[in-house]
Write a structure and sequence with these properties.
The complex is a heterodimer of chains A (359) and B (550).
Chain A lengths: L3 E10 L2 E11 L4 E5 L6 H9 L6 E6 L2 E2 L10 E4 L11 H11 L4 H14 L15 H14 L4 E5 L7 H18 L2 E6 L2 H7 L2 E6 L2 E6 L1 H6 L4 H6 L4 E8 L2 E4 L2 E4 L7 E7 L5 E2 L8 E13 L3 E8 L3 E7 L3 H4 L5 E7 L4 E4 L4 E4 L4
Parallel strand pairs in A: 3-8, 3-9, 6-7, 7-8
Antiparallel strand pairs in A: 1-2, 1-4, 4-5, 9-10, 11-12, 11-14, 12-13, 14-20, 15-19, 16-17, 16-19, 17-18, 20-21
Helix pairs in contact in A: 2-3, 2-4, 3-4
Chain B lengths: L1 H35 L11 H8 L1 H34 L5 H13 L2 H12 L4 H8 L10 H25 L3 H9 L4 H12 L1 H17 L2 H6 L6 H10 L6 H25 L20 H29 L1 E4 L2 E6 L2 H9 L2 H30 L3 H9 L2 H4 L2 H11 L11 H27 L1 H9 L4 H30 L2 H6 L7 H11 L2 H25 L9
Antiparallel strand pairs in B: 1-2
Classes of the chains: A alpha+beta (359), B mainly alpha (550).
C-alpha cells in the first residue's frame, strides 16, 4: 500500500494565501479526514493532491516518490466528488468500467472488476441502468465504485455525503468506512461536518484559514483539543473568560487553587456541556463551583439542554436522561460543578495553556 | 506539455473569432454608420439624413408605424402566449402534445407565409371574404395596420408560450398557497404573485417579440400595403428604382438599431432587481375542471394554436388547388408543383446549399467560441461575448444593406455571389450557436472532466470522451435550428440576391408580389416540409425539448 507525505505545501490565489506551509504524514491504509469550515483550504489541498491545481511551493510524496510534477491523469488517484460527477451518458456498468478502460484491462478481468465493485456498493443488478434513473445516494455509490474499481494508490473524497439527506448520510458513511477498511486503500476525506469526521476517521486534521490547527485521533480531537479553534469547531464547547494568578484560577468573582498557573494573564476556560454537573452535591473529585440561573430548557428526549447564565457568561449544560422535575426549572437559580479534570485552558492566541487533567 | 498546447490552440481560436467578427460584423456595420453621416451631394460629414428624418413626414410616419407594429405585435403575442401558457400549465387540458406541436408549427413556418395565407383568406380577392360577400356579408380586406399586428401576434406568440410555460412550471406552489392563506383571492393572486414571479420570462419574451416585429420586412410589405415601417422604407430607399438613397437608408437603419437597443436596455432595467432564486419544493399542479369552464379553457387553448397554425395548413391546401394565373379554380391539381419543378427549381437548390454551408461553418465556429466563452473567461473573451450581442439587435435588412455596401468593391467584392448570402446568415446566427454551446457547457460542469482525468484520461481525451458526447445533442439540435432559420431567411437575402443566387423565401416573396399564388403555395409547402423535417430531427436529438427552438 501507499503512504503520503506532504511537505511545506503552500498556495495563494493572487494575494490570498489559501494554504500556508502544510506538513502531513498519512500512513498506509489510513482513513485521514480534513475537517474545517468552508474556505479553510481543505478542498484546495485535496485538489492539489489530485493534481487539478498546482501548489506554489512544497512537495507531495507518495510511496517515497514525488508526484507533484505528474499530470493529474498519471497520478493513479481515485476521486469521489460532492456532486457525484457521474457520467450521465453512460450506464452504471460503463461508468464503473471507465477508468479500467484507460488502463486497458482485458475484457474478462474488467467485467469481473465491475461486478465486484458494484456488489461492494450494493448495486448488483443495476449494470444497464442510466444514472438519471437513480437516486442521489445510489449515484454516489456508483461514484465510489468507479473510484475504487481502479484500485487507486490513494482515494480522495471531497464532501461526498453533503448533498444527501441525513439518514442516507449515516448509512453511506458506514459503507464507505467498511469498504475502505476491507480494501485498505489510503483515503483522504474532506468534510465540514464534525460528527461525520468523528464517525469515520482514523485521524482528523482540523484546518482553519489555510493552516493545520490540530491533527489527532477523533478521541484526541474531541477530548484533548490543543487549539481553541479545534475545541470550538468539533462538538459544542463552552468558553468562559477567566484569569490566571499565582497558582489560582479566577472565574467571575470565584477563585480556585490551580497548580501550574503562575504567570498573571487573561485566559479562557473551556468545557463540554456533558461535563457540567447541575445541583450542588458532594463529589469525590475536585470541582469548580459556579452559581447560575436557568434561562431555557430544551428537552430532546434522550437528553435535555440547559441554557445557563453564570456571572462569567452564558453556557450550555447537557443532562442525560432528564426526569420530569428537571424540565420545570426555567428561571430558577442552580448551582453547577465543573470537574477540574475535564476543563481546558486557552490563552488569548487560542493556544493551549494547560488541561485540568495535567494539573 | 499539454497545457502549453491548449494555450496556443485557444489563443488561435480567440484571434480567429475576433477577426471574423471584425470583418463580418464591425466592418460592414461601420459602413452603415458612415453612410448615415455623409451628405450624398457634398460627401462631407453631416447630420443631414438625421435632420431629414425629423423633418419629413413619411419617415416620421415610418418610425411611428414601426413602434405601432412593434408594440402591437408584442402585446398581441404576449396576451395570446401568456394565456396559452397559463391555461396549459395550470389546468388539465386534453392533448397537450398536440397543442405544443401546433404552436411549434406556427413558430417555424416562414414569417411571410402567415401574411400571405391571411391574404388568401381575407385579402381583396380572399376566399373567405368572397364567400361571405356572396351571402351578403361584407368585410373590409385585411390590409393595413390591423393585418400586420394580427399576423405578428399569431406568428410570435409561440415564443412567449414556450418561454413563459417553463417559468410558470417552475414556480413553487407553496408561494401561491401562502398568498392564498394570507387572504389574497385567486384572481388577485395571479397579478400580485404569479405574474411578478414570471416577469423575467415575460419581459424576455416581450423583448424578443418586439425585436422580431420591428425587424420583420416581409409581413408589412405583403399585408401592410401603405403601412410603411422603417424596414420597408430602408429597403425602398436602398434599392429604389431611381438611384436610391443609401445615406438615408443607412440613417433609417440606425434608427431601427437604436429602437432595438433601447428595448434591450429597457428590459435590463425592468429586471434590474427581479432575479428570484426559488428553492423548488412543490411543483404547481394542474387543476382539474369540468363542465363549461373546461370547455371554455379548451376552446381558448385550441383556438389560439389552431389560428396560429392556420397559415401553414392554408398554404399546403392551396398548393394542391387548380389555378389559372393568380386566381384559384375549383378542383385538385399538381400543376403548381409541376410549374415549380419546371421553371423555378433553382431556388430550392440554392436554399439547400447556402443553408448547409452556413450551418457547417456556424457549428464549427459556434462550438469553439462557445467553449472559449464558458471555459476561458477573461477580458478579451468578455469583450467578444459582448460583441456577439450585436447581431441580436441588427435586423436582417440592415445587415443585408451593410454587406452590400461593404463588399461591393475589391478586395472583398462579393456582391452577386452565393457566398455573401451565406456570410450574412452565418454572422447573424453565430451568436445563437455560441451562446447555446456555452450554456450547454455550463450544464456539464468541469467536475465531470476532472473525474475522467482522475480515472486516467489525459485532459484532451477526457474532453472528447465526456464533454463532447454530452453537448453533442445540443450542438446538433442548435445546428438544425440554425438550418431552419437559414432556409427561411428573407430580408437580408432580398437585398443581396441576384438572378442566379435566388433563394426560396425570395422566390416566394416575389411570387406573392406578382400574384402567382399557386407557385407561392407550392414553394412554401416545399419549404415548410423541409423545415418540418429539420425541426423533427432537432426535437428527436434534444429529447423533445421545445426550448431547443428558441
Amino acid at each position: 500500500m501507499a503512504d503520503l507525505k506532504i511537505q511545506g505545501l503552500a498556495k495563494s490565489y493572487r494575494d490570498v494565501r489559501v494554504l500556508e506551509g502544510i506538513d502531513l504524514h498519512i500512513a498506509s491504509g489510513e482513513f485521514f479526514t480534513l475537517l474545517g469550515p468552508s474556505g479553510c483550504g481543505k478542498t484546495t489541498l485535496l485538489r492539489t493532491i489530485a493534481g487539478f491545481q498546482h501548489q506554489d511551493r512544497g512537495e507531495i510524496i507518495v510511496k517515497g516518490e514525488r508526484i507533484d510534477n505528474k499530470p493529474a491523469h498519471k497520478r493513479d488517484i481515485g476521486m469521489v466528488f460532492q456532486d457525484y460527477a457521474i457520467f450521465p451518458h453512460l450506464t452504471v456498468a460503463e461508468n464503473v468500467a471507465f477508468g479500467l478502460k484507460a488502463r486497458s484491462l482485458p475484457k474478462a478481468a474488467m467485467d469481473q472488476r465491475v461486478d465486484e465493485s458494484l456488489k461492494m456498493v450494493r448495486l448488483e443488478g443495476y449494470h444497464a441502468r442510466y444514472p438519471a434513473e437513480m437516486s442521489g445516494g445510489q449515484q454516489q455509490r456508483i461514484g465510489l465504485a468507479r473510484a475504487m474499481a481502479i484500485r487507486p494508490t490513494l482515494l480522495l473524497m471531497d464532501e461526498p455525503l453533503s448533498n444527501l439527506d441525513a439518514k442516507l448520510r449515516i448509512e453511506l458513511r458506514e459503507d464507505i468506512r467498511d469498504i475502505q477498511r476491507r480494501l485498505g486503500i489510503t483515503t483522504i476525506y474532506v468534510t465540514h461536518d464534525q460528527e461525520e469526521a468523528l464517525a469515520v476517521s482514523d485521524r482528523i486534521c482540523v484546518m482553519n484559514k489555510g493552516n493545520v490547527e490540530q491533527i489527532g485521533t477523533p478521541f484526541e480531537i474531541y477530548r484533548k483539543p490543543v487549539r481553541r479553534f479545534a475545541a470550538g469547531f468539533v462538538g459544542t464547547m463552552n468558553f468562559l473568560p477567566a484569569r490566571a494568578e499565582n497558582g489560582r484560577l479566577m472565574v467571575g468573582s470565584q477563585s480556585f487553587p490551580f497548580a501550574g498557573l503562575q504567570a498573571e494573564r487573561a485566559i479562557e476556560i473551556a468545557f463540554r456541556p456533558e461535563n457540567v454537573i447541575l445541583a450542588n452535591r458532594p463529589l469525590d473529585e475536585e470541582v469548580l463551583h459556579l452559581r447560575a440561573e436557568v434561562r431555557k430548557v430544551t428537552f430532546l428526549g434522550r437528553e435535555a439542554h440547559y441554557m445557563l447564565t453564570t456571572e462569567a457568561g452564558e453556557i450550555v449544560a447537557q443532562v442525560a436522561d432528564p426526569s420530569s422535575d428537571f424540565i420545570d426549572m426555567e428561571g430558577k437559580p442552580v448551582d453547577i460543578c465543573l470537574p477540574l479534570a475535564k476543563i481546558v485552558l486557552f490563552d488569548r492566541n487560542g493556544d493551549l495553556v494547560m488541561t485540568g487533567a495535567a494539573r | 506539455m499539454s497545457r502549453r498546447f491548449r494555450f496556443d490552440l485557444w489563443t488561435f481560436v480567440l484571434i480567429g473569432a475576433w477577426t471574423i467578427l471584425l470583418i463580418l460584423l464591425v466592418w460592414p456595420l461601420s459602413s452603415i454608420v458612415r453612410a448615415s453621416l455623409i451628405d450624398n451631394e457634398t460627401g462631407a460629414l453631416s447630420l443631414v439624413h438625421y435632420m431629414e428624418i425629423f423633418t419629413t413626414r413619411v419617415y416620421q410616419r415610418a418610425i411611428g408605424n414601426t413602434l405601432i407594429a412593434g408594440f402591437g405585435g408584442m402585446m398581441g403575442a404576449l396576451v395570446l402566449g401568456v394565456a396559452l401558457a397559463f391555461v396549459t400549465t395550470r389546468f388539465h387540458i386534453y392533448g397537450r402534445a398536440l397543442i405544443q406541436t401546433l404552436a411549434v408549427i406556427a413558430l417555424v413556418s416562414p414569417p411571410f407565409i402567415g401574411a400571405y395565407a391571411w391574404i388568401v383568406l381575407f385579402g381583396a380577392s380572399g376566399v373567405v371574404r368572397k364567400g361571405l360577400d356572396s351571402i351578403g356579408v361584407s368585410i373590409p380586406p385585411i390590409y393595413g395596420v390591423a393585418g400586420v399586428i394580427m399576423v405578428f401576434s399569431l406568428k410570435f406568440f409561440p415564443h412567449v408560450f414556450l418561454i413563459t410555460s417553463g417559468a410558470l412550471a417552475a414556480i413553487n406552489r407553496s408561494v401561491e398557497e401562502a398568498a392564498e392563506s394570507l387572504g389574497v383571492p385567486p384572481a388577485k393572486r395571479l397579478f400580485k404573485i404569479t405574474f411578478p414571479l414570471i416577469l423575467p420570462a415575460i419581459s424576455a419574451s416581450a423583448l424578443l417579440t418586439f425585436v422580431l416585429s420591428i425587424a420583420d420586412f416581409g409581413t408589412p410589405r405583403i399585408i401592410g400595403r401603405d403601412f410603411n415601417v422603417l424596414a420597408t422604407e430602408a429597403f425602398n430607399l436602398f434599392g429604389g428604382e431611381v438611384g436610391g438613397n443609401p445615406g438615408m437608408a443607412s440613417a433609417l437603419s440606425m434608427v431601427l438599431i437604436f429602437l432595438s437597443m433601447t428595448v434591450v436596455f429597457a428590459q435590463r432595467w425592468v429586471l434590474r432587481r427581479n432575479v428570484y432564486h426559488s428553492n423548488m419544493i412543490k411543483k404547481p399542479e394542474r387543476q382539474h375542471v369540468t363542465g363549461l369552464r373546461s370547455a371554455g379553457l379548451h376552446l381558448l387553448a385550441y383556438g389560439i394554436v389552431l389560428i396560429g397554425a392556420l397559415p401553414a395548413f392554408i398554404v399546403v391546401i392551396f398548393s394542391f388547388r387548380r389555378t389559372s394565373g393568380p386566381v384559384f379554380q375549383p378542383g385538385v391539381s399538381l400543376q403548381s408543383y409541376e410549374k415549380v419543378i419546371a421553371t423555378v427549381s433553382e431556388p430550392i437548390w440554392n436554399t439547400l446549399t447556402f443553408s448547409s454551408v452556413a450551418v457547417v461553418a456556424i457549428v464549427i465556429t459556434g462550438t469553439l467560441v462557445g467553449y472559449l466563452i464558458s471555459r476561458r473567461p477573461g477580458v478579451v473573451t468578455g469583450a467578444l461575448d459582448a460583441l456577439l450581442m450585436v447581431p441580436y439587435i441588427v435586423p436582417g435588412i440592415v445587415m443585408g444593406i451593410a454587406f452590400i455596401t461593404r463588399f461591393n468593391d475589391p478586395p472583398l467584392a462579393l456582391t452577386g455571389t452565393g457566398l455573401i448570402i451565406i456570410l450574412v446568415v452565418y454572422i447573424r446566427r453565430l451568436p445563437y450557436s455560441a451562446r447555446s454551446v456555452a450554456a450547454a457547457l455550463k450544464q456539464v460542469g468541469p467536475n465531470l472532466e476532472d473525474a475522467a482525468v482522475s480515472l486516467g484520461y489525459a485532459p484532451g481525451k477526457a474532453f472528447m470522451k465526456v464533454t463532447v458526447p454530452l453537448i453533442l445533442p445540443g450542438i446538433m439540435a442548435g445546428a438544425l435550428m440554425s438550418f431552419v432559420t437559414a432556409m427561411n431567411e428573407l430580408s437580408s437575402s432580398l437585398v443581396l440576391y441576384v438572378g442566379s443566387t435566388i433563394t426560396m423565401p425570395v422566390r416566394i416573396y416575389l411570387s406573392v408580389m406578382d400574384g402567382e399564388y399557386g407557385t407561392a403555395s407550392a414553394l412554401s409547402t416545399i419549404l415548410l416540409s423541409m423545415t418540418a423535417v429539420a425541426v423533427y430531427a432537432a426535437f428527436h436529438l434534444s429529447g423533445r425539448k421545445e426550448s431547443a427552438l428558441l
